[in-house]
Amino acid sequence: METMILANIPSPPQGVWHIGPVPIRAYALCIMVGIVVAMWIGVRRYEARGGDPDTVWDAAIVAIPAGIIGGRLYHVITDHQKYFGEGKNPWQAFNISAGGLGIWGAVALGALAVWALMRHKGLPFAPLADALAPGVILAQGIGRLGNWFNQELYGAPTDVPWALDIYQRVDEAGRYAPLTGRSTGEVIASVHPTFLYELVWNVAVFALLIWADRRFRLGRGRVLWLYVAGYTFGRFFIELMRADEATLILGLRVNTWVSGILFIVAVAMFLRTRGPRETPQEVDPNGPLSATSAAER
Questions:
Q1: What are the residue boundaries of the structural domains of the chain, listed by start?
Q2: Continuous segment of H or E residues that includes residue 202
């Protein structure tokens, strides 16, 4: 007997459109929308804490390019076999348009760039990080919609009602082109939509951060550490479901190891951090401004 599929999730027919010679990529649009949402939330939260909204915009100027570079570096390092070795083209490591940004590298290098900026300004990093963290996790969820358009980062074949249908995509010459081609309408696989699982989890963590911050008046980086712990906890299990090619360490995907290690670190730092919520105007004792000069501002 044939099994009737009641309600599968269809993939978009394509992920790239062209306006003349200019490609418009859905993945890039999703990332841009996520950045705008994160900035809107971050500005409101930092201002509510008593901070200068312009500081958030200054942070974005350094965090966005640093995040892109960090995300690409993490991807190239953890999937180096795709770019280096016999028959590989190392220059493809710079081809971001072909996909491949690791969130770990993006957040790490972006946060490091913002930390350096805040130290230069003589302002504490933690209040800004706590203000930005909820928007960042929500932006990650929005960015996962880009994976839906790209038909990537999915799980094993399944017959659950919410399975994701992966279509055959070809270019104008009829060649297989999963990222840039257009659907022929042929379903080549029905899989677990792990991008959707992560999207839902990210929204749930966003809600948790907003609630916990309001309920307990978290400060001194605890919202940031709660974000890391919440995200990595869900990502650990989602990684176990993914079926795409990945670098393995002792039989587990590298992102599974990273998730587990960062979760432990984040929980330890969250529990270790003490003290009342600080204000963004407090001067960083390690920064270039003295208490006297800060008081005169």
A1: 9-273
A2: helix 194-216
